[in-house]
Specification:
By secondary structure, this protein is mainly β. Helix content is 7%, strand content 52%. It contains seven helices and 43 strands. A hairpin with a 4-residue loop joins strand 24 and strand 25.
Length: 806
């Protein structure tokens, strides 16, 4: 339920009704029939330099929604093209778009050939940016990274995390480890929040996806990454919105960025079957283990290290006819780990359908189902870990015999359904779009330690953790585009988004089985830590955006979004997020020599937010047992009626350039982001009766850096093309203020302190090398324990300051 005033609730209802009435009025009388007189346009799209056919190039009739993709030979076919003079346009990623006029004769077929030249800067590439319709990249002033998955058709990519790694500057994939099925963390432009999530919002075909990382079992095994539930072979393209200046239209929860994923669609034509099979293995050489300097390195390698098999098989079907397109795929994947009890079984099914009941209307349905089963080896800082026992103690182990630990069974099992329905209606100069979707995820994680295997659990141990998450979103948007004159074009967009998330968890743990053969928690002699949680959050946002285009050279955009969220305090109303951006295509001026290449300047300023965690704004209590077992309650969270989202303000400036006859692309961006009202756990006054902490908007964080992306076409021959990418990015993260509160210990050596990165590493027992001798830093400085300053204790940042990707 929303934690807002009654006036805010009335505002929501009024705006929703106004939006519905406005969209309905725009749509009245706008159902034109199919053209009575039409013909067919066919042809081929090739590379102008090598005459190589371009597959998957977009060919469309300008001013209409009629379009198609070329086949493997670059051929295309457009049917029901209205008779008369028509502009036919061809586009392909990495090439300049080309438009030709064709005189279409009713009942006849016209042929046209396109020869596209290389373009390092894809100015005409259409991207999704929160509006009702796609927008050409030249019109957007903020930086937005795009990944064309078709270029990676034959790349050895096993997961979505691998698909993103190294593809765009400022996009860092931080793997939790190398185990089979182990999740990765996505970070865009550093850490902006001290206490809240720093991961981007993810949309799949317009449906918002739950990407929470969780394990729930005692062992420190792989954490789940919902992002990796998606099959990379089902992806058409990915758009990455890296900063707050570009994420304004997504509002609250988007301060860490947004990732938009579009899955594959079928194309008109006969059914096409495709079979893809991959085989490989995961392995580590003996020399890596010897580098541990352990006397048991060879024993560990011979007894606990193995070669893990990799198998991936996919069957797809796609095709379509006039007014109907379809795509379906099924995939089975097995990944074996390099340790015992380590594997992942991954099965996915996806089906996408699109129906066009009228020429100006399309209805699309997208559905995907994933099942992942991961067997987790005990690892890391764990007395039951294979590797630490083996390297420290050999056959006997340091705490437990490594070969006995094979009897341990720890599983993470998950099922996910993601589905959505999108309807798009295009009357005249308007585009209306409605998307409704759901993401449903369920996990069942278990662990079983048999009796007499683990020293500290001699009687055995069992645990279970279940999590169910249901997420629903509704997006409604409308865009009006028109040419006001020969040199002025306008584009107006408005809409709203509603989102609801329901999450429930149950867990129980126990130890000491009465006899051999029992496995479940209920069979243990002492069950403990039985828990259950349920939570629900809701949000709604309204946005509007106005863009002006001047001579197709300069584009200026103004916009704003108003958000309400159930996690806001009771005294907090809607949060407003404004934005402005500009794009200037210098190279399309008449004075520009084409031999100089392509140049576009861009800049943006915008705001996005990050909501507090659920229940932080309300006063809560927890149950306990008083004397004699009488039920009682104790205070938990004091609550904060003024709690609001933390706000990230970002300025970014940059340019895109194509050099060396459009063979070299340069993308440069400088950004400066400042997060104010940062949420931080402040200590309560003990006399008030609440001894814990209270979440307050008191902190401030800054992120500053630059991103440089390069792409070079090394060779472009008729039968061979070689593209090379290199990305370089920097990030300086700093806690500007904690609002007068004391520093916070995040974990062990990690602390959050003013003037240093979030969760930076600090240690007084800091060993340094002086004149070839290892000494303690406080001894070298002539001080004693407890006398070093924060700067002298600081070891380093938890996130990279500089990143190079090839």
């Amino acid at each position: 339920m929303f934690a807002h005033t009654s006036s805010a609730a009335r505002l929501v209802r009024c705006l929703a009704r106004a939006a519905a009435l406005g969209l309905g009025a725009l749509a009245l009388g706008a159902f034109p029939a199919y053209a009575q007189e039409s013909g067919t346009v066919t042809g081929q799209v090739v590379d102008a330099q090598t005459a190589r056919p371009l597959a998957n190039a977009q060919v469309s009739v300008v001013g209409t929604t009629r379009g198609t993709l070329t086949d493997a030979q670059g051929n295309f076919l457009l049917v029901n093209v209205p008779a008369g003079a028509q502009q036919i346009q061809a586009r392909s990623v990495g090439f300049r778009s080309e438009t030709q006029q064709v005189q279409v004769v009713a009942g006849a077929t016209e042929r046209v050939e396109f020869r596209l030249g290389i373009s390092a800067v894809a100015l005409d590439e259409v991207v999704v940016s929160g509006r009702a319709t796609g927008t050409a990249r030249r019109e957007i002033g903020s930086s937005m990274a795009g990944i064309n998955v078709a270029e990676l058709e034959n790349a050895p990519v096993q997961s979505m995390s691998q698909l993103l790694q190294g593809r765009a500057p400022g996009v860092n994939i931080l793997p939790a480890g190398g185990q089979a099925g182990q999740g990765s963390r996505i970070m865009l432009r550093g850490l902006a929040s001290i206490s809240q999530a720093n991961t981007p919002v993810i949309y799949v075909d317009g449906v918002r996806m739950d990407n929470s990382a969780h394990a729930g079992i005692r062992t420190t095994g792989p954490s789940w990454s919902g992002f990796d539930d998606i099959n990379p072979q089902d992806i058409e393209n990915i758009e990455i919105i890296r900063g707050a200046s570009a994420a304004t239209l997504y509002g609250t929860e988007a301060a860490a960025g947004v990732i938009n994923i579009t899955t594959r669609r079928g194309q008109r034509g006969a059914p096409r079957w495709s079979v893809r099979s991959e085989y490989g293995f995961n392995d580590t050489p003996r020399s890596w283990w010897r580098e541990s300097s352990s006397v048991f390195a060879d024993w560990t390698y011979d007894n606990l290290v193995r070669r893990g098999a990799y198998r991936n098989n996919q069957l797809t079907l796609s095709g379509g006819q006039e007014g109907f397109r379809y795509y379906a795929s099924g995939t089975l994947r097995h990944t074996g780990g390099i340790q015992p009890n380590s594997f992942e079984d991954h099965g996915t099914f996806r089906s996408n359908f699109e129906v066009a009941p009228r020429e100006n209307m399309t209805i699309g349905f997208n559905a995907g189902y994933t099942q992942r089963n991961i067997m987790v080896p005990p690892n890391a800082n764990n007395q039951e870990g294979f590797i630490n026992n083996a390297l420290l103690g050999g056959p006997l182990g340091n705490w437990n015999a490594p070969l006995d630990l094979v009897a341990l069974e720890m599983f993470q099992n998950g099922n996910r359904f993601t589905g959505g329905l999108t309807a798009e209606y295009r009357p005249g100069n308007f585009v209306h779009r409605v998307t409704a979707g759901a993401d449903v995820f369920g996990s069942d994680n278990t662990e079983f330690l048999p009796p007499e295997v683990v020293s500290r659990f001699g009687g055995g141990y069992a645990g279970v953790y279940r999590r169910n998450a249901r997420n629903f979103n509704l997006d409604v948007a409308s865009t009006y585009r028109a040419n006001l004159s020969d040199w002025l074009r306008t584009s107006t967009s408005a809409g709203f988004q509603a989102y609801r998330s329901e999450v429930g968890t149950t867990s129980s743990y126990g130890e000491d089985f009465p006899f051999i053969g029992l496995r479940v928690v209920d069979a243990t002699a002492s069950s403990y830590s039985v828990g259950e949680t349920r939570g629900e959050t809701r949000s709604v946002g309204f946005f509007a955006e106005q863009q002006f285009g001047f001579n197709n050279l300069v584009f200026v955009t103004f916009g704003a979004r108003a958000d309400g969220h159930s996690a806001f305090g009771a005294d907090v109303d809607y949060q407003i997020y404004p934005k402005v951006d500009a794009s200037y295509v210098v190279s399309e001026h008449g004075f520009w020599n084409p031999e100089f290449g392509t140049l576009r300047l861009r800049g943006a300023y915008g705001m996005a937010g990050m909501q507090p965690s659920a229940f932080s704004a309300v006063r809560t209590w927890f149950a306990t047992s008083a004397a004699g077992g009488i039920p009682a309650i104790l205070p938990s969270n004091v609550g904060n009626p003024d709690l609001r989202p933390e706000i990230s303000r970002e300025l970014e400036l940059g340019f895109d350039a194509g050099l060396l006859a459009e063979r070299l692309n340069l993308e440069f961006t400088y950004y400066n982001q400042r997060t104010t009202d940062a949420l931080y756990q402040a200590r309560n006054i003990p006399s008030l009766g609440f001894l814990g902490t209270q979440l307050r908007n008191i902190g401030e964080v800054s992120n500053q850096g630059m991103e440089l992306g390069t792409r070079l076409t090394v060779l472009n021959l008729p039968r061979f093309r070689w593209d090379a990418r290199a990305n370089f990015s920097t990030n300086r993260n700093r806690v500007v203020s904690l609002g007068g509160e004391a520093p916070n210990q995040v974990r062990w050596l990690q602390h959050t302190r003013e003037g240093f990165p979030i969760a930076g590493f600090f240690a007084e027992n800091h060993l340094i090398v002086v004149n070839g001798e290892v000494v303690n830093k406080w001894d070298h400085l002539g001080s004693g324990p407890g006398t070093l300053t924060d700067a002298q204790q600081f070891i380093g940042s938890p996130t990279p300051k500089r990143t190079v990707q090839l």
